[in-house]
């Protein structure tokens, strides 16, 4: 018995165990606060905006996500992959970041040209005036340009596992957003005000984030044609799928916005407030696990072991989350207000779909950070088949039906990503592990 106790003490006193405990506790604690602030800001937005205004807000923020995906198109994965090779060289890492940002800016203009007219049409379709629709589109610009740089600037400190400054920056942004939301929406409960209340703090946070990144990368470095070529090899493989998923990833919102009622859009948007809390796990994964996975050697046994550990961990967490939401669904809906009473089943379905989508995204990130990509002519037909088949199987003009449909499509994508990353790792040759 004493031998077992001594062995356990030796394990928990190992430096790597202490390092993981420290990183997870710091990341988890700070992210819990960040997500709490985000949830409070979201709930205030839900309760203060009318059903009509919140439907417009949901459409605008859904399109913001689409624009951000279009502007990235695999650039972040390429930067992570290239940055993982030179992460200890400040100048080279700065060149990688500068090159990635230069590519993103070029894609951003195309994203705006494609997405803005579609958003204008949807806003007008659901009752916005021309003037209000234009103001909403303009209000998205600060948040959009902030999104172009923040995920790239975070790569340098993430590769060095310098987590504390990132968490402090995110907490500052969360606090500012909460304060802006409280101070403005009580007086001016309009969609464009809610968008600015979220976008302006993020812009300031990026200014501070650049200083953090400068510790590990020369943020004033110039883009490199050679690095651009390497990043674009990944972008070229992921661009068709990226363009496709920019729209298909939010297919439930697009379907309900065309086939359903304005109230249905507001209901899905309101239920989605709780799904944003899952960002806690996504951020912890992207901060703690993904950079380490990117730095692992090309060793089949090591990569398979780490892959299964991540899948089991994330699956266990998500099952527990869905169970807790089911138990406390009445309490959670009461937070949103009386307009969303009785949506218990819809709430559970929304969380389940979000968990499956997040797991699909985790698997995508794991193979993308290694520089791997599924060929678009394989990926798109599989996902498109699920999307079309789901339209015949489920009633996509109702909130419940479109949420079940979302689970079906997300599960298909998760299975595809899981099979691909397993095959890619299985094809590797076993090598002796050298910790670099």
- Number of helical runs? 18
How many DSSP-defined strands? 0
Please compute the radius of gyration using only Cα atoms: 22 Å
- Percent range for β-strand residues: under 5%
Helical proportion, percent range: over 70%
Total domain modules: 1
**Form type:** globular
Which structural class fits the helix and strand makeup? mainly alpha
Taken in chain order, the helices and strands follow as HHHHHHHHHHHHHHHHHH
Low-confidence stretches: 432-436
Q: How is this structure best described in words?
A:
With 436 residues, this protein is an all-alpha fold. Helices cover 83% and strands 0% of the residues. It is globular, with a radius of gyration of 22 Å. The protein has one domain.
Q: How would you sum up this structure in a few lines?
A:
This protein is mainly α. The chain has helices at 2-12, 15-48, 51-72, 75-86, 90-125, 130-153, 155-159, 163-185, 191-213, 225-248, 251-259, 262-275, 279-295, 300-327, 329-336, 344-368, 376-393, 399-426.
């Amino acid at each position: 018995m004493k031998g077992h106790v001594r062995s356990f003490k030796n394990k928990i006193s190992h430096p790597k165990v202490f390092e993981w405990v420290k990183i997870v506790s710091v990341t988890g604690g700070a992210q819990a606060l960040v997500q709490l602030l985000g949830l409070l800001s979201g709930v205030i937005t839900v309760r203060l905006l009318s059903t009509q205004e919140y439907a417009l807000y949901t459409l605008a923020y859904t399109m913001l996500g689409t624009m951000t995906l279009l502007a990235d198109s695999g650039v972040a994965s390429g930067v992570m992959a290239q940055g993982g090779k030179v992460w200890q060289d400040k100048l080279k890492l700065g060149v990688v970041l500068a090159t990635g940002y230069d590519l993103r800016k070029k894609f951003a203009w195309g994203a705006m040209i494609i997405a803005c007219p579609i958003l204008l049409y949807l806003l007008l379709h659901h009752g916005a005036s021309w003037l209000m629709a234009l103001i909403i589109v303009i209000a998205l610009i600060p948040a959009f340009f902030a999104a172009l740089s923040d995920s790239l600037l975070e790569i340098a400190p993430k590769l060095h596992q310098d987590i504390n400054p990132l968490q402090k920056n995110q907490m500052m942004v969360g606090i500012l957003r909460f304060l802006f939301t409280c101070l403005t929406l009580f007086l001016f409960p309009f969609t464009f005000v809610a968008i600015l209340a979220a976008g302006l703090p993020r812009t300031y946070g990026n200014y501070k984030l650049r200083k953090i990144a400068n510790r590990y990368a020369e943020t004033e470095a110039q883009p490199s044609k050679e690095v651009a070529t390497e990043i674009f090899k990944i972008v070229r493989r992921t661009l068709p799928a990226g363009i496709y998923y920019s729209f298909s990833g939010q297919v439930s919102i697009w379907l309900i916005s065309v086939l359903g009622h304005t109230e249905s859009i507001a209901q899905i948007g309101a239920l989605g407030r709780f799904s944003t809390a899952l960002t806690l796990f996504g951020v912890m994964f992207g901060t703690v696990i993904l950079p380490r996975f990117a730095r692992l050697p090309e060793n089949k046994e090591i990569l398979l072991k780490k892959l299964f550990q991540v899948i089991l961990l994330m699956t266990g967490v998500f099952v527990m989350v869905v169970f807790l939401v089911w138990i406390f669904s009445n309490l959670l809906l009461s937070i949103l207000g009386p307009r969303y009473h009785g949506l218990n089943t819809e709430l559970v379905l929304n969380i389940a779909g979000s968990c499956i989508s997040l797991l699909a995204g985790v698997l995508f990130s794991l193979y993308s950070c290694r520089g791997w990509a599924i060929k678009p002519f394989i990926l798109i037909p599989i996902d498109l088949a699920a999307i079309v088949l789901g339209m015949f199987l489920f009633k996509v003009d109702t909130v419940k039906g479109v949420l079940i449909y979302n689970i079906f499509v997300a599960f298909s994508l998760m299975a595809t990503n899981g099979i691909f990353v397993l095959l890619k790792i299985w094809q590797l040759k076993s090598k002796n592990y050298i910790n670099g």
